[in-house]
Q: What sequence folds into this?
């Protein structure tokens, strides 16, 4: 009897396979729907961020009635499961089977690096609304990829300049997650900070699965003026709590990369986050009319406040639609669509004005934000605005690109 | 026996025949399944034939994949150089780890191989100057073999992988049917008896370990070329566990069982996740179903009925 069942199991599974193999293959017809493929982590460790990305994208597409230039828009969402090999497989599916016209999304830095050669090989217009690794639009750009989000060190150069000019902090200790996102954040800050007369006196790197920051916090040099922290997600929550417990905040206030107090984690923090000053290209508390409108509509749809991931995909979807409008809906002409993606300019995105530089990275406003409690809720109040900041800030791009990418060892910590 | 060989050969030939008619996405999934099949079959030699359950097999898979990626992307090395280096790296790693692991059996073997697998993962993650850390190494181009067909296209690469899978299956088949393979089965059944018969049990297990690692490396090298991207995910625990599940699902101790298990798992993962977010649930249900209704795996159960054992064992 066991074996009969095994046979049934085998036959059913093989039938299922046969059905899947003969699965639906979409034919791309002129005048048919325009297909946008979105890669987002809907399951796995980053599922909450993936949801924000999906909600942002859908919010914009619903606003335009899911159509542009007389053609319907079809959004095909694929789950990357928070890992890059799956993202690549799903990207292949989107391009080969679903015959999408534009690819967007992605969260992890490694996904960005892996999709670059894929986009170029498949010649599929691709946008990155979230993935921020510097080199994706610096030393290793891809012809078919336009970044509509940000570059990791982009907010950090002007932020360091602001810190030098507006605070008395001259000796800073950095504590950041030990991977490229952390290295590039610290590197960008360090370069401009040290040029302005400051010094990074210590660099602490925490593993990505840290559960207890106490041993790292105990190492912080007592003579530092401030601490710059770069944390993401659960680590940001844990870090904030433990930093408060050390009692250092009064003498060594907290600075940070934008994700440390991003709205995806801020509502779960308490008073320990108050006073933290961070920099990013967005804040949900931005008082412009277009952001207030976006805030209201997003909160109504998703039941939570928008994070930078939500705004990134909302504006990212609008970016793609504007490009499609510019080519009159003829998305089958991929070269034209790519050129249009590179030429989109927005003056009234929720985050402010955006245009794209010739490496495919946005030039946009950077906001310095301070965590305050307003109306009983924590928010990233904007305390300074730096308009039209590019990924190179005030540096000459050609000279900037001759220097190495920011890594764990570069720029070297001379004052450590 | 030749019926089984014929059956498998028919399946391979059948795949080769229908391939030109398949749309390209299922074709790329088949390529993935074939590579996973080689990986799973290599684990079967260790698990099914020698009775050593390894939970760190992705280490050899990943070491070979990284060898190909590093040589191809950083040094621009050709296919032959990359393949030889990858196989050598996998074999050397298995030779080194085997010395440490073979002294244990059963659960302890599982734990040691798990730990050794994590060592490789840690190296892949932290040795950033070599492996680029968790960014991974991307841009591995398909091999230029001087053939008239461009391997960057899915169909030619499918035939390439099919040939490699067929070769691996045939070589592994020769291995397990040889007197050496028979000794391995004996060791699986009863080590002490083999010992008392005068076989050098340690050497047999060690050689099985190294050869198994070598074929896992072969799969890893193919994977680097197929995916074009290698990252610490390829050496992580989940990859090892998936290989183990493929062997268990298909039937350990039968060479084609793991290949079938690999095919099933690759397709289940990639097709089911398209239609529902609860694909992990469905995958889990399939595993439980097989364990309940076909505990020796699908192929294991089919064969048990075809050749009933004496004394009414089922």
A:
């Amino acid at each position: 009897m066991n074996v009969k069942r095994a046979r049934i199991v085998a036959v059913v599974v093989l039938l299922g396979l046969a059905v899947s193999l003969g699965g639906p293959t979409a034919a791309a017809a002129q005048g048919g729907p325009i297909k946008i493929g979105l890669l987002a982590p809907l399951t796995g460790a980053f599922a909450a961020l993936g949801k924000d990305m999906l909600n942002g994208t859908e919010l914009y597409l619903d606003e335009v009635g899911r159509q542009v230039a007389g053609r319907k828009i079809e959004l095909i969402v694929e789950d990357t499961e928070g890992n890059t090999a799956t993202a690549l497989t799903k990207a292949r599916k989107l391009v080969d089977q679903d015959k999408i016209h534009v690819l967007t999304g992605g969260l992890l830095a490694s996904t960005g690096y892996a999709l670059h050669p894929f986009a170029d090989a498949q010649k599929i217009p691709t946008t990155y609304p979230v993935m921020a690794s510097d080199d994706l639009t610096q030393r290793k750009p891809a012809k078919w990829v336009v970044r509509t989000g940000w570059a990791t060190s982009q907010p950090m150069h002007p932020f360091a300049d602001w810190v030098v000019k507006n605070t008395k902090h001259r000796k800073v200790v950095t504590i950041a997650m030990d991977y490229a996102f952390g290295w590039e954040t610290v590197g960008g800050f360090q370069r401009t900070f040290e040029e302005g007369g400051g010094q990074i006196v210590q660099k602490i790197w925490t593993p990505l699965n840290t559960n207890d920051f106490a041993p790292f916090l105990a190492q912080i040099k007592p003579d530092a003026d401030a601490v710059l922290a770069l944390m993401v997600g659960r680590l940001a929550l844990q870090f904030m709590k433990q930093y408060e417990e050390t009692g250092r905040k009064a003498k060594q206030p907290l600075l940070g990369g934008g994700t440390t107090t991003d709205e995806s984690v801020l509502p779960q923090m308490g008073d320990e986050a108050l006073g933290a000053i961070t920099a990013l290209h967005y804040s949900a508390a931005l008082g412009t009319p277009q952001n207030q409108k976006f805030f209201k509509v997003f909160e109504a749809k998703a039941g939570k406040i928008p994070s930078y991931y939500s705004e990134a995909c909302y504006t990212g979807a609008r970016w793609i639609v504007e490009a499609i409008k510019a080519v009159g809906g003829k998305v089958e002409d991929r070269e034209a669509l790519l050129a249009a993606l590179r030429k989109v300019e927005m003056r009234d995105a929720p985050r402010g004005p955006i245009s794209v530089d010739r490496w495919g990275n946005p030039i946009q406003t950077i906001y310095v934000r301070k965590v305050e409690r307003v109306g009983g809720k924590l928010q990233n109040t904007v305390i300074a605005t730096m308009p039209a900041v590019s990924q190179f800030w005030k540096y000459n791009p050609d000279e900037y690109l001759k220097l190495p990418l920011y890594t764990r060892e570069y720029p070297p910590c001379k004052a450590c | 026996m030749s019926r089984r060989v014929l059956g498998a050969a028919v399946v391979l030939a059948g795949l080769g025949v229908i391939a030109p008619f398949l749309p390209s996405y299922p074709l790329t999934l088949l390529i993935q399944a074939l590579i996973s099949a080689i990986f799973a079959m290599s684990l079967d030699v260790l698990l099914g034939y020698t009775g050593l359950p390894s939970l760190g097999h992705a280490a050899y898979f990943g070491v070979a994949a990284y060898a190909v990626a590093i040589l191809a992307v950083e040094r621009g090395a050709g296919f032959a150089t990359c393949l030889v280096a990858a196989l050598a790296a996998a074999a050397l790693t298995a030779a080194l780890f085997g010395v440490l692991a073979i002294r244990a059996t059963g659960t302890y073997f599982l734990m040691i191989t798990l730990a050794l697998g994590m060592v490789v993962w840690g190296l892949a993650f932290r040795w950033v100057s070599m492996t680029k850390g968790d960014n991974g190494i991307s841009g591995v181009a398909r091999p230029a073999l001087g053939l008239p067909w461009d391997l960057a296209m899915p169909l030619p690469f499918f035939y390439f992988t099919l040939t490699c899978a067929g070769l691996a299956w045939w070589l592994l088949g020769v291995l397990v049917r040889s007197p050496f393979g028979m000794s391995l089965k004996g060791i699986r059944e009863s080590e002490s008896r083999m010992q008392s018969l005068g076989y050098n049990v340690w050497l047999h297990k060690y050689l099985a370990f190294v050869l198994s690692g070598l074929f896992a490396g072969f799969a890893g090298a193919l994977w680097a070329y197929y995916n074009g991207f290698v990252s610490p995910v390829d050496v992580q625990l989940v990859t090892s566990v998936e290989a183990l599940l493929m062997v268990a699902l298909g039937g350990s101790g039968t060479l084609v069982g793991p290949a079938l298990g690999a095919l099933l798992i690759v397709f289940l993962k990639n097709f089911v996740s398209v239609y529902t977010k609860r694909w992990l649930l469905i995958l889990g249900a399939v595993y439980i179903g097989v364990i309940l209704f076909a505990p020796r795996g699908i192929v294991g159960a089919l064969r048990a009925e075809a050749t009933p054992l004496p004394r009414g064992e089922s």
About this structure: The interface with chain B takes residues 2-3, 5-10, 13, 17, 20-21, 23, 25, 42-43, 78-79, 81, 83-85, 88-89, 92-93, 96-97, 109-110, 113-114, 116-118, 121, 133, 179-180, 208, 407-408 of chain A (CB under 8 Å). DSSP finds twelve helices and 15 strands in chain A. Confidence is low (pLDDT under 50) at residues 22-29 of chain A.
